[in-house]
Structure formats: C-alpha cells, structure tokens
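Following up on my earlier thread - several people asked me to post the actual chain instead of describing it. Fair enough. Here it is, all 503 residues.
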Amino acid sequence: MDKKRISFELLLLFSVFVIATCGLVYELVAGALASYLLGDSVKQFSFIIGVYLFSMGVGSYFAKFIQKNLLDRFVEIEILVGLIGGISSVILFLLFNTVHHFEWVLYLLVFITGCLVGLEIPLLMNILKDRVEFKDLVSNVFAFDYIGALLASILFPLVLIPNLGIIRTSLFFGLINVSIAIFLCFYLRRELRNPISLKIKSITTFLCLLALFIFADKILSYSEEKLYGENIIYSRSSPYQRIVLTRNSNDFRLYLNNNLQFSSADEYRYHEALVHPAMSMAKNIKRILILGGGDGFAVREVLKYPEVEHITLVDLDGEMTKFFQQNETMNKLNHNSLNNKKLEIVNQDAFMWIKDLDKTFDVIIIDFPDPSNYSLGKLYSLQFYKELKKVTNPSTKIVVQTTSPYFAPKSFWCIQKTLAQVFPMVTAYHTYVPSFGEWGFCLVSNSMEKETIRKISGLRFYDYNFDQMAFFNKDMKAENLEVNRLDNQILVRYFDEEWGKVQ
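Reply from S.P.:
Thanks for posting it. Predicted structure:
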C-alpha cells in the first residue's frame, strides 16, 4: 500500500513537472510568435509574461471553488491545457491576417492558458494534502515546478524552435499534456469517478492534436501564403527569426519576421547605393567589413573591385548565411558571393564581436535590419558606434543603412545625429527603391575628404552623382531629436511610432 501511495505521489509530482514545462513553452511560443508577427520583441515578451503570470494568479484564486471530484477535474484541466495551448499557435497564424484586433486574440489565448495552468497547481496540492505532509508537499511541488520551467527555457531556443518550429512546438507539448491525462486515466482509473468519459475526451483530443502536428507544414504554408499573398518557396524558423522566401513570377522576396528585406526585381538599386559610394571614395579598399547582409548581395557588389583582398561578413543568423550559400537560385542572384575565397563568414552578434577586435578595416558596410526592436536598436546606438570607431583608420569609409527618410524621418535623422556624436564627417543620402520607397543611408568617415577616387563599369543604377543623392526635401527632415543611447533606445520608439502609422 505504501508503494502504491508513493507511486501515486510521484506520478502527480511528475505531472507538476510536465505542467510547468508545457506552460512555459506555451508562454514562450506566444511571445516568439508575437515578436515575429508584430515586431518589438521586448514589448511583446513583456506583455505576454505579464498577462500569463496575472492569469495564473486568477486561475489559482478560482481553484478554491473546485471542491468535488478533484482528480477528475485535474485530468480535465490537463486535457484543456494541452488542447488550448497546443492549438494556440495554429489559431494565431491563421487569424493574423484576417482579424483587425489580433493582439486581443493573442492575449485572450495567453490568459486562458495561464488560468488553466494556474488552476492545476493548487488543485494538485489539494489532492495530495491528505497524503503528504504540508512542508514536503509545498517544497516538492514548487521544486518540480521550477525544474520544469528551467528545462523549457533551455530547450525552447536551442532545440525546439530550430527543429520543430513554432507551430509544431506548441502542438508537441500539447500532445505531452494530453498524454499525461491519458496515462492518468488508465493508471488511476479506480480513483477516478468517470474514467471512461475522461478516456474518450483525452484520446480524442490527442488524435486531433496529432493530426494537426502531422499537417503542421501545410497549415503554416496556407497561413503564410494568405499573409504574404505570394508563392512561398522556402521558410524556416531560426533561433533568431522567421525566414520566408517567396516567388512571384521572376521576383523573389525575402521576409524576416514578416518584414520585407529585399525584392530581386530592384535590390540592385539598394545594394549599389549602399556599397559603391563608400567603395568609390575610400583611399584603400583592401580590407572590407560587412555587418549584416547575410544574403550576400553587399558582398557581390564589393567583389566587383579587384583591389579587394579580404572581406569579413558578420551576420548573427547562421541559417541565413547557410541558405544563401547553398541555395542554387540565391547563388545566381548573389553571384555565388558567399562562397568566394576572399570571404570570411562570422556568425556572431556584431555588438559583442566588435568589442574584442584588434584590427582595422578600409571600408565598413553596415546593413542591419531596421531598428524595430531593442535587440536591433543597440546596433544603432552611441555605444556601438564608439566601439566601431576603434576598428577604423584615418581614411576608413563607413556606410550605414538608416531606414526611410520619408516614412520615418525621426528615425533616419536620429541615426545620423548619433553617428555625428562619434565621427567628424557624416553625410546623409537617399535613393528610391520601388519595393521600399525612398530609402536612406549615411556615409561616415574620420576625415573631411569626400571625392570619387575610382569608378567601375557595369553598374545598373549608381552613376556616381553622389551630391544629388545627398539632397533632401522638407518632407524628409526632422529636428529636435535625441541621440540613441543604449540606456534609452529612443530610436526604437521613434521607429515604432512612425512605421506604426504607415502600417
């Protein structure tokens, strides 16, 4: 009898471990999905965590009103948690492009899941209170709870998202939740009041989740085709972002976390404007540093200069550089630049990588994504530019992509002002890219020299008339702006405010 009691207790404590692991995974899935679809990962994760913890408190409060058939209710809640938490990502992907107030659907699902998880722990403690001493009960329950949370937080970025993706991750843990319910139905059938009914509910739910898990790729493809309105030829979730490549006739488009990065129809305009002003004006162009630009297009433009001896490309996401290295279609677009023997690829965070650098470069090309969240905003900060200056020499030329001066003038001139705090010569310029509209850049150097030294033939767009690109109309200017510092990240607020109006 003692052995049976011990096994009963261990089984329920193991359920606590599963509850904590699955519950945190559902929370992380919601946060990651919100940052993919809505941007501003810090704000989204903050709101998701707040709503989830609040809802757990609500669930814990209402647990005291459940007084009968506690074990049956516990199994039912386990089934519900698995069902709602498991299908949450499917619902959110399908509704993103069709519901006006998508955020409310997101937070509602997080709230319901949190309430159900919050119900389970007090309910479990009530079940065990007459079987285990109070001090042992509390310590054991919370120990298993925290261990499960730790496991989920480690597995989520390192194993689950890279291998399963967001949809399959939530469905997988939904299956785990329901599997525990099925096991309890059979193992504790004599303790349950309605074992047959619970078996039917749990097995039916398991089969539904399993079917969704099997067809997850088709569901994701359907939802993303609705979202992008184009034929998706590649999609993958890396630890850092959702990568989607679409094709419409001969036009290939890359989206990172739902934001357009390039269109093959006009990317040459952007990349020629990004690369060739700095390359044509630099005194030397032997050693080149490219930060961002994992698609290889900036590298393609740099390699047009035979004087270049070595290029270092630093891009955080290895999935990006790997795809643009290996995909045949992308190799045609970037002229196989990422496999060139002059190129060294470094998959690290540029902010951390540059701190430990002890060499300088002749030209530095910065092609980061727009500062839509704080992790990207730090790469446009005063502190980052101070670190950047350490790897320059007196004649180094730097170019920075600085978002749109038309749609986001505050953001554009904030970056220019921040650069001007560190470098003596900062010249803003812009050009028109049909897929994006007016797009801006800053040419930066340690000296006042600004003249074309070299020209190459074969460019499709850039004509070396730099002064014309440096002219701005009134509707592309902004004043009284703050410098973007690491501790205030004012740029992210400007960007969110301005692009929020456009969208």
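The mean pLDDT is 87. That should answer part of your original question.
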